[in-house]
Amino acid sequence: MPLSASTPRPATRAASRPSVSRLVGTALLVPLALGLVACQKEAGSGAGSPATAAATPLPTVAAPAGKSWAETIVITPEGGYRMGNPDAAIKVIEYGSLTCSHCGEFSEKGAATIRDQWVASGRLSYEFRHFVRDGLDLTMGLLTRCGGPETTLALTDQVFANQKAIFDGLKGRETALNAAMAAAPDQRFQAIAQAAGLSEFFAARGISADQAKACLTKTDLAQQMAQQTTEQGDKLQIEGTPTFLINGEKIGTATWEEFKTRIEGLGVR
Prior knowledge:
By secondary structure, the chain is α+β, with helices and mostly antiparallel strands. It has helices spanning about 20-25, 25-30, 100-120, 135-145, 150-160, 165-170, 175-180, 185-195, 200-205, 210-215, 220-235, 255-265, and strands spanning about 75, 80-85, 90-95, 125-130, 245, 250.
């Protein structure tokens, strides 16, 4: 969902589903491209036609006293981070990657509307499930979790908002990155973060060096994230990111415009 820099993005292609061993082991970490990673078979290849606008909007649902739905965030059994009313009439799940350009573009156009209008109304809940695709993606995913559930989606937003700048910063660091990716498992993600300048990026957003170090040595969490990606990707046949589920139905819509039309057709304003 999160906001991404307003810059042109390269053409993209379908993403294969990585295995756990390739994600956590050295093999997949080495061939990291220094550019926005391809992530979607074809933008706008949605399943079926988007719904037209519904005649009657769904009723709003007030958040509990002293709270807002946009600040109500929990970890789901599937490992996602859900924001909003748990009993919302419309439940959206996004499988997204932090190194996916289409995910960044979707976030750039739609994050504020989803969070501040749809989720805030209590009509819709939004869940982000991290579909890990490469070593840098996994490293950033560990760091977004450092501050707890209440900050994970905000930090994810920040990664998407600065996606192009992060990749631009990798230029000229290939040697250091390759060395980091070949490090021992308990040192690998910390080394990647240091080589990619991620430690400074997250420090500027409230994650201290000690916090980051502790998060980046959680190889069990990295293994879990990779396992969830593999198992859920196989089960749902996820071929690219972002992939959305709306009330359990998988759709292939890759553009914000088509997605917005579909959601509005369900009565969400």
